[in-house]
Amino acid sequence: MSIANWPKSERPRERLLARGASALSDAELLAIFLRVGVKGKSAVDLARDLLTRFDSLSNLFSAKLSDFSVIPGMGPAKYAQLQAVFEMARRSLAEEMTLRAAFSSPETVRDYLRLHLSGLTHEVFFALWLDARNHLIVSEELFRGTLTHTSVYPREIVRNALLRNAAAVVFAHNHPSGAVEPSEADKELTRQLKKTLNLVDVKTLDHFIVAGRSIVSFAEKGWL
Question: pTM (2 decimals)?
Fold first, then answer.
């Protein structure tokens, strides 16, 4: 049945306007984005198909066009719209951290990192460079690949810190395997980077590991 034939109190758009976006399920929010379904399926049904195939919104946002287009009714136009929505969400969070101290809202930092890192199939090492008031200067991917002592170069990190005129940094990397706990190599590398950056008066405030929807803070665990 088309959503237009549903009772108004059950339609996703009307429910959002009446109760707010947080009251809707992932499928209902996605259905509002899709607007229409396909033959024999409402927009909500189609949204459920997408979430079933990709398992989560994060995986859906990070899907390749070729995988996205396998779903009937999906194609380059919808894919471009979805990526635009995703990028606007990332930029909105970046603006929030630029305008106010990043660590006045730790969950904002977590959300920002999840949007950037949770859906990646390869490992990346990421930095949030902060000014003296902990406002975001810029975020950037520093290295890509397996995180080891040979793939992350402290000299390059110090150079980037000085280039950005940063007073502090938050590091992050992802675990595509889904294992959120850091390895001993992760901990040792963090200690080395903190020690090296201290020499140029750049504080290492935290190091996050992102594994799907899970995220661990070195600072909260007492590992810094």
Answer: 0.71
